[in-house]
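Retro notes, item 3 of 5
We never archived the inputs for the NAP complex last cycle. Fixing that now. Sequence and ligand:
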Amino acid sequence: MYDLNNKIYVAGHAGLVGSALVRQLTPLGGNVVTKKRSELDLLDADAVSRFFEAERPAVVYLAAAKVGGIHGNSTYPVDFLLGNMKIQNNVIESAWRYGVKKLLFLGSSCIYPKIAPQPIKEEYLLTSSLEPTNEPYAIAKIAGIKLCNAMNRQYGTDFLCVMPSNLYGFNDNYHPENAHALPMLLRRFHEAKENGSNSVVIWGSGTPRREFLFADDLAKACVYLMNNYTSSEVGELINIGTGEDCTIIELAELIREVVGFSGNIEFDRTKPDGTLRKLMDVSRIHSLGWYHKTSLREGLEKIYDDFLNNPALRRS
Ligand SMILES: NC(=O)c1ccc[n+]([C@@H]2O[C@H](COP(=O)([O-])OP(=O)(O)OC[C@H]3O[C@@H](n4cnc5c(N)ncnc54)[C@H](OP(=O)(O)O)[C@@H]3O)[C@@H](O)[C@H]2O)c1
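Structure as it came back at the time:
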């Protein structure tokens, strides 16, 4: 286990995952360093290098990225491909150059092939074509995994790569156009209740299955791995998820109950469904002793409370 008196840099501390990491690390007595984007733009290689030279963190959690869905990837493919590669290259290279002892790189389940056997095992990486709608993001994340692994091989670093499933949590993005499916649904059910609407219409048949992990559980898994395992014990990459999925219909029913909306749920079957199932195999992380704690209902109750008590989340 690394010495908690060492400096820990959390890149992307204001985001969904970064803020969960800071919540997890701070009570453990970690000396956590963060920088706002206005103080340190991670796209700027020279600025990143100067920061590492001056601060000399011993441990790095890399949770900064350009994150988004189909709309973002198709409208801003350069930002998703070049932007993410720049951020991760700058941080990973400076971490190596300035002697960081341990780094954790956050990837995503999008790195896996579009058509993969379920549940998805780590070894399915690069076995067939990616989902075209998020290819720029996925290619950047795969390059990040390969760079961490190359650093470990060539320079003996200890850089870990984790692949979380779909995340939700405190401080999430509820933007009506570019939020992920779960916070978007929560917002729409909330607004339907507030406006006295009779129904909420959801795109597709509602039958695709998805897995959702509470971001604070992910943060616990990341810190657990960093504190207890080396990259050679973890392997090239490791999935972090619940190992349980549900249909969009089940998710919508649960959100309706949590929000207290009494109207109907309708499905617009003229709209596309997307991938039918996307469940990660989490047997590797289970074998290392980590299991998620927060059930989907419990997590939804927590974030609805956050949504109601934080007007900034509802503003956009
Ligand atoms: N959300 C999910 O469902 C999910 C699922 C799997 C994996 N992940 C991975 O987890 C990581 C974190 O995702 P997230 O959901 O926490 O994203 P997020 O909420 O959008 O947070 C990203 C953070 O990165 C920062 N950032 C972006 N570009 C930057 C730059 N040029 N300079 C400095 N800071 C910059 C953002 O700063 P600002 O606050 O200034 O914008 C923000 O704090 C990503 O690598 C993502 O791929 C997320």
